[in-house]
Design goal:
Layout lengths: L6 E3 L5 E3 L7 E7 L8 H12 L4 E7 L11 H12 L19 H6 L12 E4 L5 E5 L8 H12 L1
Parallel strand pairs: 3-4
Antiparallel strand pairs: 1-2, 3-5, 5-6
């Protein structure tokens, strides 16, 4: 199974087949609007803008699991992200990221290798083939050289 075989929902609740991103490199991030790491939205948007032409897509999955830091409605989340950070990368419906019975299928796939989010803004790098190529914890900013190197390597494959 590949990441791109999964289906989820967009922030507005409409179906979102991840096959729409097949052949791209994806950076999947569990995001939140009221977190100390929330300013990473700006760096994620810059990364998305800079490398979209090379095949990178940033995919944001709001999560309210860590400190209740994403309590807003889909409309509030979209407005906050657009107004404060100019976010244009895709945002999806809130879901559970932690392993357990309520975990979203997307995060069940992502955490299959053992790395599970322990806070907001954890990042998974997905290769063009739909496999997980790396996990980066919250403290790793979008402009971190290790993350950038991994993204560039994935784009070169």
């Amino acid at each position: 199974m590949s990441f791109y075989d999964l289906e989820t929902q967009r922030l507005d609740g409409t179906p979102a087949p991840l096959a729409d991103y097949r052949g791209k490199v994806a950076l999947v991030v569990n995001v939140a609007s009221a977190c100390g790491y929330t300013p990473q939205y700006a760096g994620l948007q810059r990364l998305h803008d800079e490398l979209a032409g090379d095949g990178l897509v940033v995919l944001g999955f709001p999560s309210n699991e860590f400190g209740g830091q994403e309590p807003g409605s889909p409309e509030q989340i979209a407005t906050f992200c657009q107004r404060n950070y100019g976010v244009t990368f895709p945002l999806f419906a809130k879901g559970e990221t932690r392993p357990g019975p309520g975990q979203s299928p997307v995060y069940a796939f992502l955490t299959g290798g053992g790395d599970a989010p322990d806070w907001n803004f954890c990042k998974y790098l997905i290769g063009r083939d739909g496999t997980v190529r790396g996990f980066f914890p919250s403290r790793v900013a979008p402009d971190d050289r290790r993350l950038r190197q991994a993204v560039n390597e994935a784009l070169a494959d």
